Amino acid sequence: MGVLMALFGCVALALSSVGVYGVLAEGVARRIPEIGVRLALGAEPRDVMKLVLGQAVKLAGIGLAIGVPIAFAVNRAMSRLIFGIVSINLLLLAGFTLLLLLVALAAAYIPARRAMRVDPLVALRHE
Question: How far is 20 from 59, CA to CA, in rounded Å?
């Protein structure tokens, strides 16, 4: 049973990382002209990297701010209703929260690198 739950957890983690990657890749593609203007006006590529990674942290933070209290509440409710379900381990919950943040940053790294390499002239002609 534990192996099956670990497998489901890994699949959920993979799906969430693909989702974060997709959202950020779409956001970077839409913001190419803006990023080109920023770079043309003198922004450093690392500033663009911070912009995209900051967006990823914001998205992951909003998701975790909604998901963690719901997970905690559902666990408390289920442990009262169903015999044998143990209450939540806060250290384990904090570890998975950190893991999800790291996965979000890793998924955002590819779009951030793509945004850093935007040529300002090509981006301004894009419109």
Answer: 8
Q: Are 111 and 27 spatial neighbours (Cβ–Cβ below 8 Å)?
A: yes
Mark residue 42 as left, alpha or beta (left: phi above 0; alpha: psi -120 to 50; beta: remaining).
left
What is the total residue count of the chain? 127
Closest to 18 (Cα-Cα) out of 116, 111, 95:
111
Cβ contacts of residue 8 below 8 Å, gap of 6+?
Answer: none
Whose structure tokens read 């983690």? 13
- The model's pLDDT over 7-52, given as tens digits with 9 standing for 90+, comes to 998 898 888 888 888 888 898 888 888 888 888 888 898 998 998 8
